[in-house]
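As noted in the main text, all predictions were made from sequence alone. Below is one such record, for Response regulator.
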Amino acid sequence: MSLATEIAPHLPYLRRYARALTGAQTAGDAYVRATLEAIVEAPDSFPKDVEARLGIYRTFHAIWNSANVDSGISANEGSEFEQVAHERLSGITPLSRQALLLTAMEGFSNEDTAYLIDSSEDEVDALVAEAIAEIDRQTKTSVLIIEDEPIIAMDIESIVLDVGHQVTGIATTRDEAVAAATEQQPGLILADIQLADDSSGIDAVKDILEKFSVPVIFITAFPERLLTGERPEPTFLITKPFQRSTVKAAIAQALFFRSSAAIPA
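Prediction:
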């Protein structure tokens, strides 16, 4: 099997990680492109003693730690991005965020995470705890949940409350979501893609973002469809079925950067 064939299935998830780490689709995808370029230029340097998924994330971290990657963000966008990042990063180290995302969002074990960030398993535990504590302290807000499956909606509500946020409401259709958001103006939206009346969570979020800016996390059973890197796509994405730790990590990162959603075309 060729190296390209081995790493291809992992690219959508590397994009998800890179976007969450940088807080933007453009910047995250730029680092993924740089990673692929590095592999193409020096395929013999790709780690051969680990599985392909670990290898590509390891290569990504080498790029992340050493390269000045052109993100493609314009000067105005860049200054705003850097201002938010500087404000948030002042209280938490990038390494802590990497450990949090690799374990909670990407599902790597502490052992694998330690390999990826050149750390020990005990240090990974400490870094994750540090990240969660500091991000939670910085980012208390109100949350609108757009989800048509009652059990899943209740589970998400429980997670949101558990990390100290408030829930403004639970909407099951596009119209309900827009009405609820307009009335309450939440600080964060968690939106399923497919809603009860065959309406779209994506369309609901489009309508809401026409009224005001708000960070959005999309929830889907088919993340690879929204992580192609070929069009405007969500920065923050949760895969169904999800782990509670994954939702907590995504919420923390979305609020960390105060990022509004990129809406799929």
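The chain is about 55% helix and 10% strand. Residues 73-82, 259-263 have pLDDT under 50 and may be disordered. These features were considered when defining construct boundaries for the mutagenesis experiments described in Section 2.9.
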